[in-house]
Amino acid sequence: MVLSADEGSKDWVNVGPLRRSWYWLLGLAIASAITGFIGTQFFVFESSEIAALVLRIFLIASLFGAIAANFTMCWLYYKYVLKHTVELALSNILFFYLVATMTFGACYNQLYRVNPSLFSYNQPSRMTTVLWTVPPLSYQIQRLHFLLFSALQSVNGGYYKIASHSVIVSFMGYAQGVFTIGLLALLVAAYVNRASQFR
After folding, report:
1. d(CA 122, CA 142)
2. How would residue 199 be classed by pLDDT, with cut points 50, 70 and 90?
């Protein structure tokens, strides 16, 4: 297990809902990775827009599921820590934030490939095709742009290359911001808890 309720303790593993949300997150992350791999290995996804669209929609659904699982796991973890008055691990808070940033970034990228009009994207190559055919370097740069966009969305910041051009993307950015505020509350609680131990 990646997470623990406090350093050196893994008692939270015995909490059914918390454990199941972790398994859901792990399973959906693996499913997303496998889906992306399939899209690059079979010619049908490079030639048929319908097949490529179906696969990307499945990938987006998996990413949304991973986002929901991460949010749920964070909430259950917070409830567990409050109930048992155990120490908050800073590494766990960082884990929740990184997972949210990466899954949102990947989801933004796939939404752009399905419907570019959802974003205002200032980039020279204009890779807007739904097909799984792009130059490897250009695709990695595009992924990096959306990852940076996701990181800045989480703190209500703006990225000069990408902006929201739709309600769904704006709502996702709002959800990211609320989640980050929750993590900051956890971070403050962890700091206060640690500071009180040294008094």
Report:
1. 11
2. low
- pLDDT number for residue 172: 93
Instruction: Report CA 9 to chain centroid distance, whole Å.
Output: 26
pLDDT of residue 129: 73
Q: Provide the pLDDT for residue 17.
A: 81
State both tokens at 149. Answer: 């966009």
Please report, as a single letter, which amino acid is at residue 53.
L
The full set of domain ranges for the chain reads: 14-197
| Cβ contact 134:127 at 8 Å | yes
* HSE value, Cβ hemisphere, 13 Å, CA-based, for 182: 19
User: What DSSP line would sit under 143-187, residue for residue?
Assistant: HHHHHHHHHHHTTT--BTTEEE-SHHHHHHHHHHHHHHHHHHHHH
Averaged pLDDT score across all residues of the chain: 82
CA 30 to chain centre: 13
Instruction: Decide if 159 contacts 118 (C-beta within 8 A).
Output: no
* Other residues' Cβ atoms within 10 Å of the Cβ of residue 84: 13
Identify the sign of the CA torsion 130, 135, 140, 141: negative
